[in-house]
Amino acid sequence: MTTGKNPKYYRILLKLSGEALGGNGRVNICPEAVHDMAEQIREVRELDVQVVVVVGGGNIFRGLSGSERGIERATGDYMGMLATVINALALQDALEKIGVPTRVQSAIAMSQVAEPFIRRRAVRHLEKGRVVIFGGGTGNPYFSTDTAAALRANEIGAEVILKATKVDGIYDCDPKKNRGAKRFAQISYLEALKKQLKVMDSTAFSLCMDNKMPIIVFDLFKPHNLRRVVMGEKVGTLVTG
């Protein structure tokens, strides 16, 4: 762990996949995996870093795979958005149990469990030291939670998107299938597009590229990795202009 330095980033957006919340089983919600994520978020909050989180819902339901099994696409996507709110509430519970104040904001109105997404209110929560968790995707079908992350990062003035994965960066091919896979320490948006590297879906990636929003892809499952990224250590792969 790095000590004695100032953080490199003071307002970050952390993108968590639903599968990450499912732990090794990658389905449903694994309390241990959610707790570990909450602890890493607490570490960076203690550095006075403002944290927003966008969560996926793939551990519960994925709209695209639902449509492949006969569910109408828009309906499936709305079901997936509701799954992200379930995950957001699970993460909120884990954070508040370890003393981190949070707010959940949903792009789909459900006032009994979450605030509506209001940009100025979200920024005010950050200024008051709360972690803000965004659920409900963008609120629209046909858009992924990657796109929601790119959109919210730009809306709330984040300095970087930190995309948490189970691998330690972006490779030129699947490192689990090819032992000779090469990891990139840094890559440009255009290179990533040309090489068809699956950093994010094309809509999300274009939004980041157009607005010069840097993305760091890193392994959240190594202890203290989130803190190391925030402190500016060379962790994962940086995608930038």
Relevant terms:
241 residues, alpha/beta, Carbamate kinase, 9-stranded mixed β-sheet, two-stranded antiparallel ribbon, 9 helices, 38% helix, globular
Q: What is the percentage of strand-forming residues?
A: 15-25%
Tally the structural domains.
1
Q: In CATH, what is the class? A: Alpha Beta
Helix content: 25-40%
Please count the beta strands (DSSP E, at least 2 residues each): 11
What integer is the average pLDDT?
92
Radius of gyration: 17 Å
Which superfamily, in CATH terms, is the homologous superfamily? Answer: Acetylglutamate kinase-like
Uncertain regions: pLDDT < 50 for 5+ in a row?
none
Q: Do you know the CATH architecture? A: 3-Layer(aba) Sandwich
Class by alpha and beta content: alpha/beta
CATH topology label: Carbamate kinase
> So how many helices?
9
Main sheet overview: 9 strands, mixed
Order of helices and strands: EHHEHHEEHEHEEEEHHEHE
Distance between the ends = 28 Å
Widest sheet, order of strands: 4-3-5-2-1-6-10-11-9
Sum up the overall morphology in one term.
globular
Describe what you observe in this structure.
The strands form two sheets. This protein has a nine-stranded mixed β-sheet with strand order 4-3-5-2-1-6-10-11-9, sandwiched between helices. Strands 7-8 form a two-stranded antiparallel ribbon. The chain is globular and about 50 Å long. The longest helix has 25 residues, at about 75-95. It contains nine helices and eleven strands. Helix 2 (about 30-45) packs across helix 4 and helix 6 packs parallel to helix 8. The relative contact order is 0.17. The chain has about 240 residues and is an alpha/beta fold. The protein has one domain (about 10-240): Carbamate kinase. The protein has helices at about 20, 30-45, 65-70, 75-95, 120-125, 145-155, 190-195, 200-210, 225-230, and strands at about 10-15, 50-55, 100-105, 115, 130-135, 160-165, 170, 185, 185-190, 215-220, 235-240. The model has no long low-confidence stretch (mean pLDDT about 90).
